[in-house]
Amino acid sequence: MVQNKIKGVGVALITPFNNFEVDYPALARMVEHVIAGGVDYIVALGSTAETATLSLEERQQVYDFVVEHTAGRVPIVVGMGGNNTHELVEQLRTFDMHDAVAILSVVPYYNKPSQEGIFRHYMAVAEASPVPVILYNVPGRTGVNMTATTTLRLAHASDKFVAIKEASGSIEQMQEIIDGKPENFLVISGDDGITVELIKRGGVGVISVAANAFPEKFCRCIHNAMEGNFAEAEPAMEQFAEPIALLFREGNPTGVKTMTAVMGLTRDEVRLPLVEGTETLREDTKNGITKYDLR
Known about the structure:
Blueprint: E1 8-12, E2 17-18, E3 21-22, H1 24-36, E4 41-44, H2 56-70, E5 76-79, H3 85-94, E6 100-106, H4 115-128, E7 133-137, H5 139-142, H6 148-157, E8 161-166, H7 171-180, E9 186-189, H8 195-200, E10 205-208, H9 215-226, H10 230-239, H11 241-248, H12 254-262, H13 279-291
Parallel strand pairs: 1-4, 1-10, 4-5, 5-6, 6-7, 7-8, 8-9
Antiparallel strand pairs: 2-3
């Protein structure tokens, strides 16, 4: 059952660049770093991967590379979303997502569809996708919130929908989904900082940005929460408040790439329209890594 493969910590893997081309040696280091750190699965080609700036050819190459270097050690989810439903359906039929256990598909952005439009979009995705679908609600990026009512409508409409990555920032909305969902439908945090609280309420983990940078410590915290050991998990999550804030101060993935660069894992390059982190962020990141012993 795919639901057993997407619990705990999934990492929204970054795409390293060198002279603005995909840096495959650094990508290999990142795969090894997060697996050694204890992540439960990898999400390739998500928002944190700067997928919007990758050509279709690059996306396929990056995905193939991640699959090859993961070598079956952890499950892989692939990001497949868009705001042109027809085009996305065609991509789902042609993209070679070999070895993917599921896709992560974001609510259509920019168009600002109605709730009915969101529902119909996802039903078309479900019909076209060869693998199960994780819904992804992130109104801060898309400009529209998929309500709990629409999420539950989808969860009950098709077994193809196995989970939601919820990044609305509203615990109340997440609780409404948890209370009304089918038994096998999972609620996954899309916000590192509230993951422990969501797990206490019935969530099953996180798709994480922070796990790119300090996977071992972050995974230990989340795994403690998953085991019901909140006495360990809650203080640890409180200690992560400042490092997590650094990751998002100048946007994502600018912040996390600044941290992985300071750690010597990647360069801090991002593709326009994003820009690299400021020198102030870099210095604060160095200090934060030392203060919280994140290496």
